[in-house]
Write a structure and sequence with these properties.
Strand content: 5-15%
Distance between the termini: 34 Å
CATH superfamily: NADH Oxidase
Helix content: 25-40%
Structural class: alpha+beta
Strand order of the largest sheet: 1-2-4-3
Bound molecules: flavin mononucleotide
Shape: globular
Largest sheet: 4 strands, antiparallel
CATH topology: NADH Oxidase
Number of strands: 4
Number of helices: 7
Number of domains: 1
CATH class: Alpha Beta
Length: about 170
Amino acid sequence: MNVFDAIHQRYSYRGEFTNAAVSRSDLRKIVDAGIQAPSGCNAQTTSFVIVDDPRLLGQVAEIVAKPVCHSAKAMIVCVADWRPAYADVSFAVEDCAAAVENLLLAITALGYATVWLDGVLRTEDRARRIAALLGVPSDKTVRVLLPLGVPAEPGTPREKLAFEERAWFNRYGG
Ligand SMILES: Cc1cc2nc3c(=O)[nH]c(=O)nc-3n(C[C@H](O)[C@H](O)[C@H](O)COP(=O)(O)O)c2cc1C
């Protein structure tokens, strides 16, 4: 799929997934897209735990407690390393966001669906509990989780503001 088609077809999916598996080769392709993302000073501070073991999937789903996780066939857990990349500045948040967007586009291009789960990980100690379950070292943070699979009831991309409302040539506001 063309990159512009993937951008326009992507949407956050929070419904059920079918029983169709997500192959390891697709998971590798998707995560490789994240690995290729830019990062501040090329510090590559985001790493990925790919969960496809059904027992672990169930345990993570129980922690996240969101319906979309219960039928997910795989999850990609994005882990941020806070080490500074430039002087004492960490670009971990930006690095992770760039990687996640690449993952979302790759997931869409391969015919799967997902949703960027971040806010929900920051409550009820969920990020730390998932980190403990997956063996993530305590100096790193589980920052984003993407549950994925083939959508049982595919949705449609959400409306975005018109170009003219958000972008201008040469001068803010046009
Ligand atoms: C930083 C960030 C955090 C997000 N956290 C959550 C979340 O915790 N739970 C959730 O259901 N969606 C989450 N989302 C998805 C947004 O709600 C979604 O992207 C937005 O509503 C626009 O819809 P769209 O993705 O279909 O275009 C998050 C998105 C971003 C970029």
